């Protein structure tokens, strides 16, 4: 099934956790294609501004979600934010669907869940749209880079360690990591970005070159859990006295991009785009 960045069909937005969901809903609504929003986690702004088309579901009711989407003749869906599949025995499915999914013995492997969900939706004749294509205008790119003079030495250290950094992301276990100078201090786990940042004691005197790096994982698909960074993350990085944010061009969506770049410009932090 083709995955085209088209605005000719009606779209159902499935919103998991994360800050970009409201911005995504507003953007799709401006294109007159947003027909239904399925919330998998709390989002008061979406509930307030899109209450006529917004409905809350539990991811464990996966079969009902798909059935309700198809009842409204919606074929295209886009998923924003993290959506973690629980173990198959906790998902309410028809016997046919359960048999289909049970053949994927990777189901409980968190690194394979996105691929399994995409395959399952395709089997149900649901077209899963690419976040990267639909939200192209929100992607970070080389033109957004801003390196301040006092941070150039840190940038050089990151670039000198780039092959090592890429090897870590190629392990397919994390979207983010933290460095100090030439040393990797921590790698993101299932608890998320904010937890990763808070794990580091930035008040240590020898932590003067803290760098936050975000990228797609090696086998990560563009349709599910695409990397997103926004003003909430940069606010936390500034509080923690980070000196550099490193992103890979066209591999991260920036929520509230104008505000994000304004923070970079007006604060003691630089943005490296590789």
The count of DSSP E runs of length 2 or more, i.e. the number of strands, is: 12
Sum up the overall morphology in one term.
Answer: globular
Look up the CATH topology of the largest domain.
Cytidine Deaminase, domain 2
Q: How many whole angstroms does the radius of gyration measure?
A: 20 Å
CATH class of the largest domain: Alpha Beta
In CATH, the architecture of the largest domain is: 3-Layer(aba) Sandwich
In the sheet with the most strands, the strands line up as 3-2-1-4-5
Order of helices and strands: EHEHEHEHHEHHHEEHEEHEEHE
How many domains, as an integer? 2
Number of helices: 11
Structural class: alpha/beta
Can you tell me the residue ranges where pLDDT is under 50 for at least 5 consecutive residues?
A: 1-5
CATH superfamily of the largest domain: LpxI C-terminal catalytic domain
The proportion of residues forming helix, as a percent range, comes to 25-40%
Task: Kindly estimate the percentage of residues that lie in beta strands according to DSSP.
Answer: 15-25%
Distance between the amino and carboxyl termini: 32 Å
- Main sheet? 5 strands, parallel
Mean pLDDT: 89
């Amino acid at each position: 099934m083709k995955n085209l960045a088209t605005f000719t069909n009606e779209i159902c937005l499935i919103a998991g956790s994360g800050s970009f969901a409201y911005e995504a809903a507003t953007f799709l609504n401006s294109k007159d294609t947003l027909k239904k929003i399925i919330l998998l986690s709390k989002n008061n702004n979406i509930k307030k501004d899109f209450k006529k088309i917004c409905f809350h579901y539990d991811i464990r009711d996966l079969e009902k979600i798909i059935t309700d989407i198809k009842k409204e003749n919606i074929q295209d869906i886009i998923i924003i934010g993290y959506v973690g599949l629980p173990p198959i025995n906790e998902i309410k499915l028809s016997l046919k669907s359960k048999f289909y999914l049970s053949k994927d013995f990777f189901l409980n492997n968190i690194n394979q869940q996105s691929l399994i969900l995409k395959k399952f939706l395709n089997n149900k004749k649901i077209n899963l749209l690419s976040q990267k294509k639909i939200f192209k205008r929100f992607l970070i790119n080389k033109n957004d880079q801003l390196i301040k003079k006092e941070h150039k030495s840190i940038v050089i250290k990151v670039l000198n360690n780039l092959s090592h950094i890429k090897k870590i992301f190629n392990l397919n276990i994390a979207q983010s990591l933290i460095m100090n100078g030439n040393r990797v201090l921590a790698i993101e786990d299932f608890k998320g970005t904010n937890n990763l940042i808070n794990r580091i004691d930035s008040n240590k005197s020898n932590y003067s070159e803290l760098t936050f790096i975000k990228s797609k994982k090696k086998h990560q698909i563009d349709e599910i859990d695409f990397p997103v960074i926004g003003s909430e993350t940069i606010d936390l990085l500034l509080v923690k006295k980070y000196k550099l944010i490193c992103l890979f061009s066209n591999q991260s969506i920036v929520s509230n991009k104008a505000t994000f770049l304004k923070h970079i410009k007006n604060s003691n932090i630089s943005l490296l785009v590789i």
